[in-house]
Amino acid sequence: MHQSRGIRTLRTIAGWLVVGVFFFPIYFWTTVAFRNAKDIFNWPPIFVDFEPTARNFEQVFGISLGFGFGAQEAVTPGGGNFYMAPRLWDSIVIASMSTVLAIVVATLAAYCLSRMHFRGRHEFVNWVLSTRMMPPVAVAVPMFFIFKQFSLLDTYLGVILVHGLMNLPLAVLLMKSFFDDIPSEIDESALLDGASRWTIFRRIVLPMAKGGIAATAVLCFIFSWTEFLFVLTLTQTSIKTVPVVSSTFVTSIGTAWGNMAALGAAAIVPAFIVIMLVQRHLVRGLTMGSLKQ
Amino acid sequence: MKDSIRKGYLANITDKYVRGQMDRRDFLRFAGKLGLGASALGMGFGNRPFFGMSSAQAQEAYQPSPDVIAWLKDVGKPFAGTTLKLATESTPPSNAINSQLKKYFEEATGIKVEIEVLPLEQVLQKLTLDVASSLGTYDLYYIDQSWAASFSQDVFDPREQYSAKADLAMPNYNLDDFLPALVDGIAKYEDRWVGVPYDIPIFIMIYRKDIYEKLGLKAPATLEELYTNSKAITDQMGPNTYGYAGQMKSGHYALECEWTSFLWGHGGSIFNADKKFSGNDEQGIAALDYYSKLRAIMPPGVDGWTWDGQGQAVAQGVAASMLSWGEFFPYFDDPSQTKISGLCEAVVPPQPIALRTVKETGYGEIPGVGHQGGSSLAVSKYSKNPDAAWLFMQWATCADTQVGITVLGGGTGPTRSSVYDDPRIKANARVGAGTTRHLQVVRETIANHMGSEPDLPEWAQISSDTIPVGLGKYFAGGYGSSKEAMDDIAGQVEGILKG
Amino acid sequence: MAVAQVKRIAISDSPIPWLAPLVALLVVFTIYPLFYNIWLSFHEYFPRKRAIQFVGMQNWQQLWEDTRFWSSLGVTFVYFAVALVFEIVLGMAIALLLDAELPGFGGLRAILSLTLVIPPAIAGMMFLLMEDAQFGVLTYILNSLGLLDKTTPILATSSTALAGVLVAEIWQWTPFMVLIFMAGLRSLPAEPYEAAMIDGASAFQMFRRLTLPMMSKVIAVAVLLRGIDLFRVFDYVFVMTSGGPGTATYTLSLYAWQQTFSFIKWGYGATLSLVSLAIIMVLANIFIRVFKVRW
């Protein structure tokens, strides 16, 4: 499609403006991470002009960066109240592994649901979708008892299972719609040539659906990354993810806003890396899967 | 030079430095004369005593008593290798133990301690699941005073433990050292001790001395004075500075806490002797009317604040006084965090207009303007290592550890009488981060002005939902009158108690 | 093309091995909780007795008289409808806007998805801080623009509190819609547009006649996924207003959470969850029928 230069300029500006509005809270929150408490609460609020401190990050990561004001001393390595670095690792492990689990199971199912015709398929998809409708509050308590039975409480495996599961309906639905976009004539001609379903799936359809898988994986990763209730209920002291430990900052005598923002800002980074890695596939894959070119 | 004098001098020059009355080079030179390496110079700035101190400072301020360590080494041997678990709210004692102190216990005994820090209601949920399934996941329970009734049968009575296991009893542990008011208000349910008092946040009156002096006001001695003083400040200094900041977030426990304080202060009570909700009687209505009157001179954002926003309002100079948790006081004195270091003063809560006796109330509530929100620590009956847990519990609540908690936890209130008199605590009674200069007020408030909420299993719902939601609706204009609001709350409370 | 032949081969393939892992996982982890909750809704946990006891229909009867339940239901529907409409419309508009290779747009698309990475509870805290009546930066901006009176605290005024919470909700989830719509837009075939251009159709006509119909499946998926979650989400309300002032922002999901976690009424909590489940199922089925979604 060809647009005049004026429209293109206007569109560029509008794009930047809209994303700017959405980005502003994140910008502000990130600056809070570099502030002392007295620079967080002000009227009029301070936007840029504050004395930056790395203290919040130092405490969250248990390291001394040695920048900021005054003669700061070393923070307790690995022992402070707000030492959260291992929790970031827990989050990464759980989010990636549960994403792999959800994608593997969902891709198989979605391919089948996209290509095979059997009675009750529509109802079957509806049922899969309906498993996401149960409020998590209602699932958490029975899950606790199941996990206790199978000694899954407070283990990586347990949380990975439950997060993978929680994302299955979403992944199945999205993957199915991506497979639907790939013309089924390709499969059919391969079938006529005598290829098995499995070969077609692995050699032909899967590579074409890479973009869709990437998009779905990003969403699964994000939902696991931000999930709160299951981790809260099903873990004790050995593992915890970022959303759950964030509540540590809300103490009985006030909220450590700076530290909370520091962890929040730090937690954006790994997830953003995942998005960026996938972003290339996202753009390329999705256009490749279409007939656009 | 004596250690205490040295510390006092250091605090003094630190404050000067922080206020810009001394430059950095001079400061470092003076500090060097005091025999302090650069690593110990954190005092007063950069650190966060509000949330615990850093390690270098910790070693400077607190070393565990050799007697306690020797005892731990002695009795802890058979339990080496055991792991103990505790779920707790993010409070100063738990944070100080978790980040600074537990290493002493672990080194001496070989017992590993894992502390899970959670929001208060999550602690309740975890304990309930533990109790419901007799899991024994947690060896120790952190029990908020409002849950004492629910968990009284699930924990050991520390008095029995102490006498039954003489070989494990800590010498000089002294159960009688716990402030009697706290034992009654927090730990005791009927005749049992549900653990020992572990933490005591309590309402004290904190006000800006400089503003009060400027306007020729005296610290509020009565609730009426609190209002007139606050109004005078708001009238003259608003909207930059208001006389008082409340904690009035609708639907939040904070609102219930503040309301209770005023209710008791007007001679009312939550339940009367017939165990009926009595917030809607004559005194109850007077209390709510007073609260509305006071609200009118508070900053407009107050309806959205818990104690967090309230504390920030005072810390940033938006409000000149608050009746709230004493733990905020050391935070206000910390020049790196607030604009009002050294400007605040603490006094006991205002005198009530009238006060009911415990007998005139239901469910063991203790009327008093100094609302307390304490908690106790107890060994679970389902624990698989009750003896190791009992060792930890004695250590965590002994006088020496409490000194450490108070020094490292940023001036939180101890639950033992002897700790208030400890020289290490008194040495910190100067302006600056982690001050303990408010603790004598805390002690007197506990002894003479303390108010405790009732003990009943439904209280969690009534206190964190029914009452603060009703009050929030009232303050948002959802009821025609204070009477109508209170009658409605009364009806709902009755409904909960019946169901 | 030999349609019949292809169909025969397709049917002869068994879907069972493909679906087995999915079904196995879903049955274990969702069917059991469902029956457990149905069972629990006829029981109640009594903290004093340490026991779950049979209470018959009591929880279900209580529902009818529970004014809090009914008012929370109303708030939930408003929250659901407003959030969904805003997220769809804004999401579609932004997706169309950003679906071009203009300077920096690749980066913009990635930055936009950052809002999703923040845990909802933290996003709630962010907006709580920004909407604070005394110190909030959003309050300040609205004051400066003359859109808000300083004496009106956004989150503590009955008429504005829900809007204040919805800002956080819409801020966080509009990019979710953008992400899905963008994926859909990028898979649209180019030929119909080229034909329409030759016919001289306007941009709006093309959007209505081509984009919307071809995107219908993607839109349906997005609406279903977000719609379901909107009934379950409570973090923003919980963190920002605790359902207040009064019960002005008190939602059904918050109620179910509080009954289960704060008041330890597992039976009544389960009942509320089942009601919520039933409502979502009915709504989703109506949606699927009305919009003739065939999977």
- Provide mean pLDDT of chain C, rounded: 88
Largest sheet of chain C: 2 strands, antiparallel
Number of helices of chain A: 13
Shape of chain C: globular
Unreliable stretches of chain C (pLDDT < 50, length at least 5) are none
Shape of chain A: globular
CATH class of chain C: Mainly Alpha
How does the helix and strand content of chain A classify structurally?
A: mainly alpha
Topology at a glance:
The complex is a heterotrimer of chains A (293), B (499) and C (295).
Chain A: H1 5-33, H2 37-40, H3 55-61, H4 85-115, H5 121-130, H6 136-149, H7 156-181, H8 185-192, H9 197-208, H10 210-226, H11 229-234, H12 242-246, E1 250-251, E2 254-255, H13 257-289
Antiparallel strand pairs in A: 1-2
Chain B: H1 3-18, H2 24-33, H3 55-61, H4 66-76, E1 83-89, H5 92-109, E2 112-118, H6 120-132, E3 140-144, H7 148-151, H8 158-164, H9 180-187, E4 188-189, E5 192-193, E6 196-199, E7 203-208, H10 209-214, H11 223-237, H12 253-265, H13 282-295, H14 307-315, E8 321-325, H15 328-332, E9 344-347, E10 370-371, E11 375-379, H16 386-397, H17 399-408, H18 417-420, H19 423-426, H20 439-448, E12 450-451, H21 459-475, H22 482-498
Parallel strand pairs in B: 1-2, 1-3, 10-12
Antiparallel strand pairs in B: 3-11, 4-5, 6-11, 7-8, 7-9
Helix pairs in contact in B: 1-2, 4-5, 5-17, 12-13, 12-21, 21-22
Chain C: H1 3-12, H2 16-40, E1 43-46, E2 51-54, H3 58-65, H4 67-98, H5 105-112, H6 120-130, H7 137-144, H8 158-186, H9 191-198, H10 203-232, H11 235-240, H12 252-262, H13 266-290
Antiparallel strand pairs in C: 1-2
Helix pairs in contact in C: 2-13, 4-8, 4-10, 6-8, 8-10, 10-13, 12-13
Model description:
The complex is a heterotrimer of chains A (293), B (499) and C (295). Chain A has 293 residues and is mainly α. In chain A, 69% of the residues lie in helices and 1% in strands. Chain A contains 13 helices and two strands. A two-stranded antiparallel sheet of chain A has the order 1-2. The two termini of chain A are 12 Å apart. The model of chain A is unreliable at 67-79 and 284-293 (pLDDT under 50). Chain B has helices spanning 3-18, 24-33, 55-61, 66-76, 92-109, 120-132, 148-151, 158-164, 180-187, 209-214, 223-237, 253-265, 282-295, 307-315, 328-332, 386-397, 399-408, 417-420, 423-426, 439-448, 459-475, 482-498; strands at residues 83-89, 112-118, 140-144, 188-189, 192-193, 196-199, 203-208, 321-325, 344-347, 370-371, 375-379, 450-451. By secondary structure, chain B is α/β, with parallel strands linked by helices. Mean pLDDT of chain B is 87; it is low at 31-56. In chain B, strands 2-1-3-11-6 form a five-stranded mixed sheet. Chain B has three domains: 3-41, no CATH class; 66-200 and 374-426, D-Maltodextrin-Binding Protein, domain 2 (3-Layer(aba) Sandwich); 203-370 and 447-498, D-Maltodextrin-Binding Protein, domain 2. Chain C has a single domain (57-291), classed as MetI-like fold, CATH 1.10.3720. In chain C, strand 1 and strand 2 (51-54) form a beta hairpin. The chains are: A mainly alpha (293), B alpha/beta (499), C mainly alpha (295). The interface between B and C is large, with 42 and 37 residues. Chain A: This is Maltose/maltodextrin transport system permease protein MalG. Chain A: Its main location: membrane. Chain A: Part of the ABC transporter complex MalEFGK involved in maltose/maltodextrin import. Probably responsible for the translocation of the substrate across the membrane.
